[in-house]
Amino acid sequence: MSISQTGVIPSGTQSLFFEGAWFPGGPPPDVSIGNDNLTLFQIGGEMFAGNISAWGGQTAQLTVTVPGGYGNYVFDDFSFSTSAVPEPSALALTAIGGLLFALCRRFAPKRQ
């Protein structure tokens, strides 16, 4: 199931922000502009963002597509922003990877 709207994306727009919620464990929706799916980042709670800087100042169609059979999907408060999407930093990802590695080593079975 999809819903779409066509309009002008304001010039200088960097990001699309929206609130969304869906069944835990269900797949996320596909959010696209034109025929290009956006990479979505969860930026806290039920707030999501995607980079749409390539479409600033253009007329484009925004489409949200949800898969069937996974329960309810809820969306609200779509907005354009001149702020960049807050993506995870390389340092944070490296730190998380190191922590996971340390935990795996800590709880690995001991060789006899």
Account of the protein in words:
- With 112 residues, the protein is an alpha+beta fold.
- It has one domain (2-85).
- It has 1 helix and 8 strands, in the order E-E-E-E-E-E-E-E-H.
- The protein has one helix at 90-107; strands spanning 2-8, 15-22, 30-33, 36-37, 40-42, 47-51, 59-65, 73-81.
- Strands 1-7-3-4 form a 4-stranded antiparallel beta sheet, with no helix packed on it. The chain has a 4-stranded antiparallel beta sheet with strand order 5-6-2-8, with no helix packed on it.
- A hairpin with a 4-residue loop joins strand 5 (40-42) and strand 6 (47-51).
- The longest helix is centred in the last third of the chain and has 18 residues, at 90-107.
- The termini are far apart.
